[in-house]
Design a protein that fits this description.
By secondary structure, the chain is mainly alpha-helical. It has nine helices and no strands. Among the domains are: 73 residues; 69 residues, Tetratricopeptide repeat domain (Serine Threonine Protein Phosphatase 5, Tetratricopeptide repeat, Alpha Horseshoe), CATH 1.25.40.
């Protein structure tokens, strides 16, 4: 006899029997469902509080930057990196440390902070930016090969002008004037027409042209003329 032709009493008996036989499974399923719902709400609440605390510390960091309290900036940045390593605020904090270190000509410190930022950035675009800044510092340290490797690892559509400029700087340092010129021209094409950096890139192109122009041969006077 199929289930759909049972009378109301028989259906009720079957339902009660099924419930008795599966009571433990049902209770476990309901309990698990409630636990998952509660856990999800708790997790969301924790993440929101976590993000709020990270934002508050980063705001304190930016205030210290504006006040030019470098020691305080470093202290807060280290705290953000330690307490919120999985947040974008920690990556921004490390980049801020790198900027301050670079201004003090502490290239090793800048490179260390940027390497941390690159390793901990979960956002692809932020990771690319950290990589390019690290490439710029690496080049300033004199390692053009390592700088080019960092630039080449960045996706082609990420910060195209910035990447091309660093590539040009590295190639120029290696003595590859033609390749550097191509890189600078590529950088210019990716810049906004109103960008103030266009003039700076043009200066780099002009410097390359000047350095690659052979000096005129000295004129010697004929004896007796």
């Amino acid at each position: 006899m199929s289930f759909d032709v049972l009378d109301e009493h028989e259906q009720g008996e079957l339902v009660q029997k099924w419930l008795r036989e599966n009571a433990l499974s049902i209770a476990a399923g309901v309990g698990l469902g409630l636990a998952l719902i509660f856990g999800w709400q708790q997790w969301k609440s924790h993440r929101a509080q976590h993000a709020s605390e990270a934002a508050g510390q980063y705001q304190a960091l930016t205030d210290a930057v504006e006040a030019k309290h470098d020691d305080e900036v470093d202290k807060i940045a280290l705290s953000v990196r330690k307490d919120f390593p999985d947040s974008a605020y920690a990556v921004f904090a490390a980049m801020t440390q790198a900027d301050i270190a670079a201004k003090k000509n502490d290239l090793a410190g800048a490179a260390s902070a940027l390497d941390w930022a690159q390793q901990h950035a979960s956002d692809a675009s932020l990771k690319s930016l950290a990589s390019l800044r690290l490439a710029k510092v690496t080049l300033a340290q004199g390692d053009a090969d390592a700088a080019l490797k960092l630039v080449d690892a960045v996706p082609k559509d990420e910060y195209s002008a910035f990447a091309a400029e660093i590539r040009g700087d590295a190639l120029a340092k290696q003595g590859h004037a033609d390749a550097a010129r191509t890189a600078y021209q590529d950088a210019i094409t990716h810049l906004d027409p109103q960008s103030t950096n266009r003039g700076f890139l043009q200066m780099k192109l002009d410097d390359l042209a000047a350095s690659s122009t052979p000096a005129p041969a000295p004129v010697t006077e004929k004896v007796g003329s």
